[in-house]
């Protein structure tokens, strides 16, 4: 999907880039005692940053705060908590976010790293609607600063601490041959959908770049990675993707190289999010070709990827291609019904709008499923990652808050 | 929902109106030997008719045929089969539909009722993508004409013969005090969504009315009934709703009375479709108020009604109101996030965008669930009927074609 230079690994995350330290601890926000507080610190020399946030009109307090902070184009730290989304908590919830940033700024300043609250982004994830346990959270902020570490451990601890229904942490790191690095961590297993695949993600780099360059690279990457992951069509109140640059490598990359590297990391993280989605039994890639434009291809692929009848058929390993036709026919894009073709796992099941011989016998028992649809009206193509709709999804989501 | 005059009952359907006879038989289209062929005959004196069809770009052969036939504004008969949708079957599938109408016209003409193929609508429902077993179907057409009956039995037999995954037949009949009647039958349990709730429905009346009057009454009714039922967001290739008038009562109704009566029958049938939807364990009405326009209210209610996380929470009787906020926040309509209120079963769970005391304790164990959302920006309101997302839905839809 990408043409980046360099080696991508999953054993490191945000601390693979020079100038960054991170930590993750159990602060007592989650009732089960698991890690729930993470910190990513940019020790510079640069502090350029960019962010992309949920398009949901109902935005969580930390999203409102971080959007405001990011207007300066600089960040010294990101503090993230799981165990509560701090969404739909009104003005008191916003004050909680503000207090968190203020407190972290004080602690970092006491600790020798002069920082203002306006240089700190806050991210929260978990159940919507409840206030955060601020005593535990603030005590955790005091403590976590002492746990900051570089290398593999700091980033990995942070990646664990942001998990909710995730079963594994998600990290990716790219080492560019020119001597700079991009690392990232992400969480997200439900409410994964368009306009950011509902998640928290922090990406770091030690390249020398302005906030404008970072912003361009981040939007380029998210529109082609997280925005094309759609597990359940639900867009969260808390989606946040941040990109921080320390400049510690002393190397300035071209915009093109930066775009490619950030996309490579985001794309790999998106792949990890799909593989760990709630209740997933099939990892599905829906590719639409023959569309009038790439946007049309994205829209059509998303409509198929969201269709409950397509998703339940895939759960049942049932090559019910008629449901793909019925789904794509509702997409608001140009298509030629009599020229639509569909294949499953590379085997044609529908040609020119009609069933192909043997279509009902295609084997869909594999875990990775390729659905390819040709609209017959153009040359543009795009792919959406999704999952099946399983008993596990229903089970997990029918008892989340209780 | 309606202000119609007259008594509505569910024990009669299309043959409650004078001038209509109907039948339903097992023609061997379904492998399991259940009834699969239905016929509704309008014996006049009038033959005015109107139809509303799926908006899916991928339209089944019978939809293409019936749309063409309806351009004349007249129908003498409707022949319907379950056991196969005759969708995505290309030109050969269209020829099958044409042959069906031609054959029925011949049989009816031989039988003394001079009819042309162009006066016959055809409806099909079942699996997409397979050709119909035409030998069985045409033999069935020859036979079914001899089974035509008025009264309760003919309509009920027809209502049984159009069932697919439906567990009960759906009929409604309204007897107007002015001496005319409207009756209807419908089927549909999956692929129930907007722009007609994916279904076949035939409504009959013995009122004296032009095809223009019928068309207006039918569009008025479907936009407020079937279009506001959304079980799984999937729009079928075969949706068809037909309204036939015999004029046999000799009474001409006002447009207003006709609108109200047709809406009452369609609304009741929509209610029956919701109650029998695939895997349903909860019948849910999502009402949005305080919207800028009725269209906005419909859009917002539909977004909530389609949200997998809301639907799985309802399946688990979990008052997870945050998911309702997260869902409505993605609706492309005006809203004031800090003024949104939500109640479950009439109990406030969210007021002005924040949780209400006791919100997590609201009892959602009932079968009928009311979700009310106030957007805080206007006075318009609308409701969408939907269901929960259950294990039963996943089970039924993961093994439909196999």
Automatic annotation (TrEMBL), chains A, B:
Q: In which pathway does it act?
A: Amino-acid biosynthesis; L-arginine biosynthesis; L-ornithine and N-acetyl-L-glutamate from L-glutamate and N(2)-acetyl-L-ornithine (cyclic): step 1/1; Amino-acid biosynthesis; L-arginine biosynthesis; N(2)-acetyl-L-ornithine from L-glutamate: step 1/4
Its EC top class is: transferase
Annotated site, Involved in the stabilization of negative charge on the oxyanion by the formation of the oxyanion hole, chain positions: 125-126
Give a yes or no for keyword Cytoplasm in this entry. Answer: yes
> What domain of life does the native source organism fall in?
Bacteria
Site positions for Cleavage, renumbered to this chain?
A: 197-198
Q: Which InterPro entries match?
A: Arg_biosynth_ArgJ, ArgJ-like_dom_sf, ArgJ_beta_C
The active site consists of 198
Per its record, the protein catalyses:
N(2)-acetyl-L-ornithine + L-glutamate = N-acetyl-L-glutamate + L-ornithine; L-glutamate + acetyl-CoA = N-acetyl-L-glutamate + CoA + H(+)
User: Known EC number(s)?
Assistant: 2.3.1.35, 2.3.1.1
Q: What's an example of a GO molecular-function annotation for this chain?
A: L-glutamate N-acetyltransferase activity, acting on acetyl-L-ornithine as donor
Keywords, alphabetical: Acyltransferase, Amino-acid biosynthesis, Arginine biosynthesis, Autocatalytic cleavage, Cytoplasm, Multifunctional enzyme, Transferase
Subcellular compartments: Cytoplasm
Q: Name one Pfam family in it.
A: ArgJ
Residues annotated as binding substrate: 164, 187, 198, 278, 397, 402
Report quaternary structure and partners.
Heterotetramer of two alpha and two beta chains.
Report the sequence similarity comment from the record: Belongs to the ArgJ family.
Q: What does this protein do?
A: Catalyzes two activities which are involved in the cyclic version of arginine biosynthesis: the synthesis of N-acetylglutamate from glutamate and acetyl-CoA as the acetyl donor, and of ornithine by transacetylation between N(2)-acetylornithine and glutamate.
Q: What is the name of this protein?
A: Arginine biosynthesis bifunctional protein ArgJ
Report the source organism. Rhodococcoides kroppenstedtii
């Amino acid at each position: 999907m990408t043409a980046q230079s360099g080696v991508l690994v999953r054993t490191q995350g945000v601390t693979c880039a020079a100038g960054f330290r991170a930590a993750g601890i159990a602060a007592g926000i989650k009732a089960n005692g698991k890690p729930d507080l993470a910190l990513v610190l940019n020790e510079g020399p640069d502090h350029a940053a960019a962010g992309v946030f949920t398009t949901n009109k109902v935005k969580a307090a930390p999203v409102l705060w971080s959007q405001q902070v990011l207007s300066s184009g600089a960040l010294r730290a990101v503090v993230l908590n799981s165990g509560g989304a701090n969404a739909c908590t009104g003005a008191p919830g916003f004050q909680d976010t503000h207090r968190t940033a203020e407190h972290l700024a004080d602690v970092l300043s006491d600790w020798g790293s002069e920082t203002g609250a306006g240089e700190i982004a806050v991210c929260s994830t978990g159940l919507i609607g409840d206030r955060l346990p601020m005593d535990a959270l603030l005590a955790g902020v005091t403590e976590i600063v002492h746990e900051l570490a570089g290398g593999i451990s700091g980033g990995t601890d942070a990646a664990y601490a942001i998990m909710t229904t995730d079963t594994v942490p998600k990290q990716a790191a790219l080492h560019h041959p020119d001597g700079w690095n991009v690392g990232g961590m992400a969480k997200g297993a439900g409410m994964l959908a368009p306009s950011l695949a509902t998640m928290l993600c922090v990406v770091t780099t030690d390249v020398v770049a302005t906030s404008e360059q970072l912003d361009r690279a981040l939007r380029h990457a998210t529109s082609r990675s997280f925005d094309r992951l759609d597990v359940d069509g639900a867009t969260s109140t808390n989606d946040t993707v941040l990109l921080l640059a320390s400049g510690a490598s002393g190397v300035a990359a071209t915009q093109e190289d930066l775009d490619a590297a950030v996309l490579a990391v985001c794309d790999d993280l998106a792949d990890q999010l799909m593989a760990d989605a709630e209740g997933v039994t099939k990892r599905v890639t829906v590719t639409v070709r023959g569309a009038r434009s790439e946007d049309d291809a994205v829209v059509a692929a998303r409509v198929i990827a969201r269709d409950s009848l397509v998703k339940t058929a895939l759960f049942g390993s049932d090559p019910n291609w008629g449901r793909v036709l019925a789904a794509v026919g509702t997409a608001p894009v140009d298509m030629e019904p009599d020229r639509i073709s569909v294949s499953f796992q590379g085997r044609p099941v529908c040609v020119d709008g009609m069933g192909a011989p043997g279509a009902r016998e295609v084997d869909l028992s594999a875990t990775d499923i390729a659905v390819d649809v040709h609209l017959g009206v153009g040359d543009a193509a795009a792919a959406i990652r999704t999952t099946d709709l399983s008993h596990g999804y229903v089970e997990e989501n029918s008892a989340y808050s209780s």
